[in-house]
Amino acid sequence: MKRDHTMAEKRAKPVARIGLIGAGFMGKCHANAFRSVAGLFDLPVEPELHLLADIDEAAARRSADALGFPRSTGDWRQLAGDPEVDIVAITAPNALHAEMAFAALEAGKAVYCEKPLSVDTPSARAMRDAAAAAGACTLVGFAYLKNPMLKLAREIVASGEIGEATSFRGIHAEDYMADPASPHSFRTDPAGGGALFDLGSHVVSVARYLLGPIVSVNGATATIHSWRPDAGDPGARRPVEVDDRAVFLAEFESGITGTIEANWAAAGRKMQLAFEVAGTRGSVAFTQERMNELLLYPADGARGRRGFTRIEAGPDHPPYGNLCPAPGHQLGYNELKVIEVAELLDAFAGGRPAHPDFAEGFEVQRTVDAALVSARERRWVDVASV
Ligand SMILES: NC(=O)c1ccc[n+]([C@@H]2O[C@H](COP(=O)([O-])OP(=O)(O)OC[C@H]3O[C@@H](n4cnc5c(N)ncnc54)[C@H](O)[C@@H]3O)[C@@H](O)[C@H]2O)c1
User: Distance between CA 368 and CA 246 in Å, rounded?
Assistant: First the structure.
């Protein structure tokens, strides 16, 4: 017999109340992911958009109405300490991540923080330690790691399907700062800006995900446009103190070497977060510009018949099937965030660490910091020394 379910029955699951700080590009993306995840993943807990904070009361109210939050505040500290908030999501500029996370951890919250974790190694280390001391569930928003194709690449590398890995070539190139008229923003803030922090942190997170720790680096940076307009006063120009491009050699703990590039002035490149891992019996290759494909080259078969195979994402690559039942129909950028919040909520409900947590965010942070030190001092730098 068909019967209608009451709201109370539908609400049998415990609720995780979300406090979101920041309602820009990433804030909208987080809100969208929290709104849609419960219908796509069978989770032990249901998220509820609860409180939104932004730079001032009016901005927060407008965004709260648009994104579906019943409450708003112009004071992020009020949100971090609000007794009704369970998970604090931080999508404010990089230089604010640390103090926001400390306040939330002190108030006993789980913390979902955008990348990069912080703006330098000491503050990232303190965030890692505060999270460990609080026993908090944390997650850093390296969402590209949530692509089912990256999980597949990791499985292929770990299983030995391409033999023993021998090299990593990684790049994250876009062109949103290629134009010298692109103004200053928090991304060019000398305290925690630059292409290496903004984009290099992503490709380092990918390198570590696929191949483990990077122990030593040797890099070079370049500022391509040394002056940019002031965003608040476009007639005025201010000098640029951060890198537009960074490249470095990386030595992994396993002994293999790699090259890593971060470039936000790469004309024509919109989302080239790309890598190749070569092994003794094959290779895997990926670019986020074609995020539903993984290229696999098995170095066997008849000579003259070998080539890269294009594997298209589908339900055989979990959790693709949660989002779409048909292969080749393709996932999108926002869906990586949905997968990310599904994993966060699952870990939060189960009292387990999520991945990548603050400990991993710290390791990424000090790898990019080491590359900056290396570029400044023109020498190899051990990551553990920064
Ligand atoms: N994972 C990804 O793919 C990805 C993509 C873009 C940005 N990010 C990260 O997300 C963060 C935000 O980037 P964005 O592109 O969304 O920036 P944005 O400028 O679009 O949004 C930042 C928001 O923070 C708010 N804000 C600033 N100061 C604040 C304060 N004191 N209190 C409360 N709110 C404040 C701003 O008003 C704005 O709404 C950065 O750390 C960035 O590195 C991650």
Answer: 10
158: domain CATH number is 3.30.360.10
- Name which of 196, 188, 176 is nearest 267 in CA terms: 176
pLDDT digits (tens, 9 = 90+) for 310-336: 999 999 999 999 999 999 999 999 999
Supply the pTM of this predicted model. Answer: 0.96
Report the residue among 63, 88, 114 best suited for mutation to probe ligand 1: largest number of ligand atoms under 8 A from its CB.
Answer: 114
- Surface-to-core class of residue 310, CB atoms within 10 Å of its CB (0-12 exposed, 13-18 middle, 19+ buried): exposed
What number is the average pLDDT over the span 86-98?
Answer: 98
**Structural tokens at position 293:** 């494909």
Q: Is the CB of 214 under 6 A from ligand 1?
A: no
**Residue 209 banded pLDDT, cuts 50, 70, 90:** very high
Q: What's the CATH number where 43 sits?
A: 3.40.50.720
Helices (H), the chain: 7-10, 25-40, 57-67, 76-80, 97-106, 121-134, 148-159, 195, 201-211, 320-323, 333-350, 358-377
Residue 349 covered by a domain: no
Structural domain span for residue 149: 145-331+358-382
- Determine if ligand 1 sits within 6 Å of the CB of residue 112: no
Same domain, 88 and 193: no
CB of 361 closer than 6 angstroms to any ligand 1 atom: no
